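Case study B.
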Amino acid sequence: MANGTAKPPGLAFSRETFAKLTPGPFLQAHLQQPEPIRPNGRSLDAFRTPTIHTGSLSHSNGSAVVRLGDTAIVCGVRAEILLASDIPHPPGEDTSEDDLVERLGLLVPNVELSTGCSPGHLPGNPPSTVAQALSYRILSLLHTSNLINADDLRILYTEPASEDDLPDEGSKVVTKAFWALYIDVLCIALDGNPFDAAWAAVISALKSTQLPKAWWDPDREMILCSPLATETHGLRLDDIPVASTFAVFSTGSALKQRSEAESWVLADPDGFEEDVCSETVTAVARSDDGGVGSITRLEKSGGGAIGKAAMGRCVHMAQQRWREWQGVLHGG
Amino acid sequence: MQTDRRRLNAPPGGTAPPVFAALPDTKLQRPTRSRKPDEHRKLFLRTGIVPSASGSAYYEIPPQQQQQTALLVPQHSSLKITCTVHGPRPLPRNAAFSPNLLLSAHVKFAPFATRNRRGYVRDASERDLGAHLETALRGVVIGERFPKSGCEVVLTVLEGEEDGWGAGGAEVKGEGWGIMTVLAGCITAASAALVDAGIDCVDLVSGGVAAVIDAGRRGDQEDGVVILDPAPSEHDGEIGAACVVAYLKSRDEVTELWIKGDAGAQVQILIDEAVKAASLVRAVLADAVKDAVEAKIGEAEDDAATTGLAKEGKGKSKEVVMTG
Amino acid sequence: MGPDISHHPLQGADGSVTFSSNLCSILAAANGPVEVQRRDELPEEAAVEVNIRPPSGVSGPRERWLESVVAAVLRSVLHLHMHPRTLVQITLQITKAPSSTLKGAIRDVALLPSLINASFLALLDGGLPLRSTVAAVFLAVVGMGEVREDPSEKELAGCKSVHGLAYNNHGDLLLSESSGSFDLAEWENIADQAEETCRAAMAPLDEDGVVMKGTMSSGPWLRQELTDKAQAAVAWREAT
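Model:
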């Protein structure tokens, strides 16, 4: 445009170049518009639509593939037998059922990110801090939500009556062994928010898990299982909690005035947004009515840009997300 | 299992895989091969499944028939492999100068890929597969166009072929035939992913596998029959030798050849059959790659058409002007 | 009464402190700014490395997760821009942990506030530049819906939910870890109570050193620490 005053010619970059050179200002430019929108085209509160396929792996007791946008995660559940006689420190009689699964270590989740799922996660390296933290968070959430009943994992044996027993005493039922579940989570493609997708994969795989009928054979002194598919049993999972993660993008820094800082809460961040935001919030909801006991876990760290009010909004969004997931988990 | 302090470990006391009881009254039918000796199983191949990688592909051989639902243990084998290619990327600063592309292939079986649970640490058979795959790919990639660069080809086997048919869950005598089919699949998947990544290759390389069925054990009069694309569960204990080739059809060249077992007088026939198998696979590979390229061209044309206009849902026009 | 703090127990580290609360004891050491590995170097800020050692056994995924949470909080507390291309290293040795009869998640949430308080005091002892003061508190909701601050192990048995929160002196919420079974109204109530406690811990002392708000049992323990430290630092001036 011809003008009286000579303006220095601007540099024209394509969007991709701008995003690579200055990711922070690129995201900020999108969010500061009158109608804030994210570079991936979603609004601030929009989550990605999940898809779940279960039962595709034939060597696992349960399996699920979850796709959340471009993030794809596969989970396989393998059951193996832990003999009660092999347990080095058997828990006492007073251990509650809720604590038994945790005390015996019957659930073994592991998240593997070094599968080439993104350029930053190439194989040949031991699990990074991110992968280890993810595995532990899944384990912690499995135990906190009391998702698995210890009774579903027991292999019982009714001891035959012997001469020592009193006549009116019923036959004793002892637990000869437990099922230990190896929950292996592999990330095939990563585009942000591995935790939500991994948790969804774990619960879908556990829902579809079938454990064979097992019994104690006193002659061979070992546990035998029936290979018939009709004699399997599944796991009872009630009140399945659903995880929702949010990233907070803030323009504040130590070098600027506190009052100048602006912040935005982005639901279900993708890879680009995760790299630019340091603050995250994860809310694990168990129902959508906000009633008693509706939240299982609430985590926030990485910054101080948002407070109580924004956390409340995140919890509401997590509860709505719970309803969205129910359709996918039970329908798919 | 060794305790790995970087992962969550098995419960103290250790676990063992379940042992299945033999059922006296259930007749177990071993699956038999219903295809012709020179017929390949149906393949499924798709590229572009991992957008953040330079190139990627998903390769699957679905089970031939519906799994018999009466038994827990799968009776028909299937194969699922994902492959991602990251590169060309610059070599680390301390690496020596390399006039060619440094290709490294990495194969890993998922823990739930086989009947016996595998660990997370790479074992010898996986390293072996990686070495064979590197040989196969090195012959097809035009390395001198990418000096001082490296390329990582990462394969994850989500479900692998078993070595035989475990009757109703009985122990499978591991003789290593399943891994031949896995290698053939890996070669094909890696080839598709390399094309998706845009790395210059002289041709499409496809993997084919053939085996000599020791008919003598079945009491037949003939010499061992050579079949292509053996499914080890259909030939429990009958396979005498197997061969994998990585074949370039338009140049009629073989970049990798791996023979296991004793083929006797039929070595040449075995190799020829494997080459035939590779040609059949190449047809599927070429189709998949063509579809992917056509889709990419279509996308690029759409992008060019909307330059200057605000793209739907993007909120910002294609070109961004930075002043100052 | 407040937590039990002892100063500079380690001579070799730039800053060190031992911090004991009802449930756990932490020995914290801070070193920095020190030289950083090429691969961890950041061009415009200092890198933060946190190492957590459990009381017994080797560290595993649990410690990696605790480290990532503590490091995330400390990044908002340190003046990272003042020492670019260097490393601030914090080592936290848990000398006494909550008993293993409690559920794992309860033990983790109970540890986090002590870990943060100990790290902050160690950074202070080491003279590293800090943007703000941070105090963390551990609360539990026991049987009848009552909220207990820094409870004992007996009170924790059978609690419904546990919460660890950290606030800085501007009132920003830097950390919130909650686990158990609760709803939003309960959490908001707990957040308010935690903010009051943290504010009280950092509250300015009047001339007599009397607590401004006499509601919390722990009183302005952090402000007391900061005042003592500052006085000790300028004591040489009085002497000469």
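The longest strand of chain C covers residues 25-34. The remaining cases will be described in the next quarterly update.
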